[in-house]
Amino acid sequence: xxxxxxxxxxxxxxxxxxxxxxxRIVLLHTPILNRNRVETDSWYRLDIIRDPDDQKHKWQxxxxxxxxxxxxxxLKPNCTNAAMFPGLIVHTNxxxxxxxxxxxxxxxxxxxxxxxxxxxxxxxxxxGDDQTYPYILQQHLTQTEIMNFGxxxxxxxxxxxxxxxxxxxxxxxxxxxxxxxxxxxxxxxxFRFGRSKPRYELINGHLHxxxxxxxxxxxxRSDEFFKPKLLDLLSILYYKFLPPxxxxxxxxxxxxxxxxEMIRTVQDMGTxxxxxxxxxxxxxxxLHQHEPKEGxxxxxxxxxxxxxxxxxxRPYFEKAINEGVTLTKNVHWDKxxxxxxxEAIKEYETQK
Length: 352
What we know:
The chain is an alpha/beta fold. It is 43% helix and 16% strand.
């Protein structure tokens, strides 16, 4: 009997086990992940596994957040949380939206309804209920219902799904998208902020929804032992050495396709949409000589090419700075910054 094939097979099995064991030690028991963050599912999934007690992101998703099979996570209805942001109270209404005002599916005939969709900047991360820009906008537009559909951590993919699943039910007269260019990388992965999420994959110019139903964290952890870490290591190394221009192109193509679908969805609802380019505190702090950030260039090119109504917040922030207003240096805007965003939207709405 020829034993050479068996010896050859045993050799490759031992070689695989050696590299697999090495990969598990490197990825799970060394700080290599902390020093080599890349936009790949392997990195984000392993970051979750290395945090078994969910300490890194527990503060963000405690209290008013719950699991959702389509969106990954969503706000719980009728929630009150005084611990999420120290010194500030967060409320959600009966529909699971930020604030205390409940809304009927059928809007009042004598009022306009605006649905604002977005991420943590729209939700009002690090802001009290009366400090978010949708709330402040409501104080300006008293004859209009302003509904805040923002959720912390959402990427454009989750915002689009929320638009289809939830916003459409309320038949708004206008949809306002709070666009944050820094969110665009979130669309490339199925994990973010220690949670699993849906994502779209662009195949032959068409969006295909992936990772739905979104697996629970318990299932992710229970399945982890059987996932080969050697493939994870190779994936991380591959994305680590990809040229930045490749990921930017991939990100911009996916973002454009997601915005296209968002606009089609709003048009099918029989309503209008306006895109608001929200500058972040970090972007304003790093703004030099009135040069627009990279995201603004993408934003303007997209809106002008597709003839989509838009609002730039940068000029409003610059005006405030010139008038002596001191802006926060935190990650998210406080009441002062949110008031500036609300002013930009109010001016657009009242001048139409």
